[in-house]
Amino acid sequence: MKQLWVFIKKESKHIFRDSRTLGVLFLMPLAQILIFGYVISTEIKDARIGVYNKANDYTSHQVTERLISSGYFKVVAYFSNKAEMETSLRRGNIQMAVVFPGDFGNLMQSSDGAPLQLVADASEANTAQMLVNYAQGIVNRYGWEKTGDIDQTTLPIQIDVRMFYNPSLKGVFMSVPGIMAMILILVSAMMTSISITREKEFGSMEVLLISPLKPWQIIVGKVAPYVLLSFVNAATILLVGILIFEVPMNGSWLLLGFINLIYILLSLSLGIFISTVANSQMVAMFISLFALMLPTILLSGFIYPIENMPDPLQWLSLLMPPRWYIQSVKDVMFKGAGFFVVWKELLIMISFLSAFMILSVKNFKIRLE
Amino acid sequence: MRKAESSMDVIKVDKLVKKFGDFTANDHLSFQVKKGEIFGFLGANGAGKTTAIKILCGLSAPTEGRVEVAGFDVEHQTEKVKKSIGYMSQKFSLYEDLTVFENIRLFGAIYGLSAGLIRERSERMLKNLGLYEQRNRLIGNLSLGWKQKLAFSVAILHRPQIVFLDEPTSGVDPVTRRQFWELIYQAAAEGITVFITTHYLDEAEYCDRVTIMADGKIEALETPRKLKKQFDCETMNEVFLKLTRPH
Amino acid sequence: MVSVTNLTKTYGSVNALNGVNVQVKESELFGVIGPDGAGKSTLFRIILSLLLPDSGEVEVWGFDPVKDYRKIRQMVGYMPGKFSLYEDLSVEENLGFFATVFGTTIKENYHLIKDIYQQIEPFKTRPAGKLSGGMKQKLALSCALIHKPKLLVLDEPTTGVDAVSRSEFWEMLQKLKKQGITILVSTPYMDEASLCDRVALIQKGKILDVAAPSEVVAGFDGKLFGVSGGNMYHLINACKSFEGVESVFPFGEELHLTFKDRDDHSEALMEFLRGKGFDKLNIRLIRPNIEDRFMSLMSSESFHE
């Protein structure tokens, strides 16, 4: 036991004496969440839009009014023909145009609904998507109110957009669990895999293998300091999210902590697993980046919603641990869900964790080949 | 007159001082190296050898003193100095993932040789080494001995006035080491000055003259024969130990 | 106490070890001498149980490195070729770490490392990465010794270290040997062979000779001549062009030369060289050294390229 303890102590010293890396570890999550938060929260305020109203009836004026009063949009131009509208868009005078067809009000009462066109400046794809999302929400709500469709089953106004529907961009707080998933997997997996392969590269692993230390002791010793570090990171992101971006926290802190602990251990075991197949720090880093980072960003529902993916990618996303983490954190934080709501996600993560732990210990070589 | 003098001494170091903060790495070094001379530069780890070589190659500026290499001032005519020297170290020699000929072409081009000249010289060089048949093999597949011999030949491909060799023969088998020295003798006979550091003290005896550095100062500068006589030693190893071992 | 019989190991198509036989006795300072890539590290790692042999027998105090690797790992101390200490930990922390990991304390075995460690103790709070080459070497040796191993395995401990530190290091090994520790050490420096009790000369995975250093030299058959005078490069070429010359190698200020029938043709050579314009010639019969022997063994195995 004493051997394990000195090993953990030694590992912690490596971490704390490398002040540059340590700085990056703590500042990176902070920078990430501030960047994400800033980009998402500031873009959508007084967005410049133009209106091309072919109907000019009461309903179309009311919809325009709704858009303006939401605070998100500011109408800076009214067009009388298509060419004017396109010029304005091209010059960047407006970010989005709303096009009402003739007879808009009457069409809304028909069974097919009224067609409404939203033309967004897609050169800034993210902004365009958000603008369209916001406008869509506002217009739909108006439509349901007017037709008295409380169940919101029909769409009295058919909005014609050629961009992807992207609910995850609704607000900054939706991205906090995603950022946490990414940072934690990065810090945990990459740092542990690098710190183990560094010993291999350095030659000290040979001496450790010769020593009476057992494989599990080396693994636990490597991992323990990073558990703490990752926890601090998770807490930083949460605090910044809650204090600066007013992310709601409706659930149990204890449960949230437990979910994080499981996810951190899972990421660490992934890191160890990577180090058993990689022989150099560089290989370890690239595996971590490409095998963990990118799938986390692309397939976990962090940026691209899972329900919009083609089926094969949806199946693939089932295998992404961050998916289950993001899901459960969202449930706990936003919906205030308890253990009995998120037990399934937890169970999946624990299964992943055990699988990787077993694989790592089995794969850990007691020799050099 | 000056011209004639500078053609004799290709390296002139006059009261060179290099300080890092309070630490004096080179303490008033003065020496000259003649054209075509094989000049051994020895010293314990940390004696200031590496610092001095960096200054001679124009990679670092002297704190005080004047250093001329190939007739150029290393501090102010760095680019010209770099064109007149070749460099080879044990740590990095050639790119492992390029072929023999690709390496030659690369380094030839870096030193501004025309494609025709590179082809002509590399052919002669490879035939001389007996490596011509292997010119399309990857460097990584050659033995260490071949790599070192080839790296040396590449370092003098552009006919520099001086070639700096930093522990070129570490870990090489004794026969290959002899072959390496034959290449050095050949280069020196062709008028290239060879400036070499080594940990093999028996190799010091191959040099025309040897300096031994300790604590940033030059403790001795003589021919190996005279040094052995002066310190009454059988080998250069004993001379070295006498000079550098703390008393 | 270490016995290696017909050991073979290949990496892909490379024969790292090719039928190696070596016996190391108790309390012996045994040197494995050969250039880089000769197979020294591979041999050591197999003995240490870090690599698996392809075929052949290895026994370390009767234990098999494949089956009884735990037993072997408990009784060996190892200094790998690369500097294996933690550069960001201090001298003291490094030693303490290895002591604890090997299940002992600095206090318990201080007597073993005292002579060596005392020299670096004044710098015990300094990070290992900031030590000079010689001091790093002493620290690494202390760390390898701290658990009182029966067998000390040192892989090229003196490579890249200056001559002063090297000679100090060999003095330390002599002292350790006297305390009864068996030492297995590898080196590419031929001149260090004479400091060992017995040596194995190794080249391209094959053992060329195993004997005491004096016996190795005695194995050099025929006469060896030292030739000097005039420009080295031209002298080498001239000697090579003399019919009857077998080998010519520069050795410092002299050339070492043998004739094909290993006999004395120095008079004829002298005449030949004079005819080529060499006047200050000196040819003398000399005693071969380990390196001469190594090279003649290499050429008889037709190893060199």
Q: Strands across the major sheet of chain A, in which order?
A: 2-1-3-4-5
Oligomer: heterotrimer
What structural class should be given to the helix and strand makeup of chain A? Answer: alpha/beta
The computed structural class of chain C is alpha/beta
Class of the largest domain in chain C in CATH? Alpha Beta
CATH homologous superfamily annotation of the largest domain in chain C: P-loop containing nucleotide triphosphate hydrolases
CATH architecture of the largest domain in chain C: 3-Layer(aba) Sandwich
Average pLDDT for all residues of chain C: 90
Polypeptide structure, described:
Chain A is of the alpha/beta class. A 5-stranded mixed β-sheet of chain A has the order 2-1-3-4-5, with helices on both faces. Chain A starts with a helix and ends in a 6-residue tail after the last helix. Helices cover 67% and strands 8% of the residues of chain A. Chain B is an alpha/beta fold. In chain B, strand 4 (64-69) and strand 5 form a beta hairpin. The relative contact order of chain B is 0.17. With 305 residues, chain C is of the alpha/beta class. Chain C has 10 helices and 13 strands. Chain C has helices at residues 40-47, 69-75, 91-101, 110-120, 133-145, 163-178, 213-218, 232-240, 266-275, 290-300, and strands at 2-11, 14-24, 29-33, 55-60, 76-79, 151-154, 182-187, 198-203, 206-211, 224-228, 245-251, 254-259, 282-286. Chains in contact: A-C, B-C. The A-C interface holds A 2-3, 6-7, 10, 13-14, 17-18, 202-204, 206-213, 366-369 and C 45, 48-52, 69, 73-74, 76, 78, 80-86, 88-89, 93, 96-98, 100-103, 143-144.
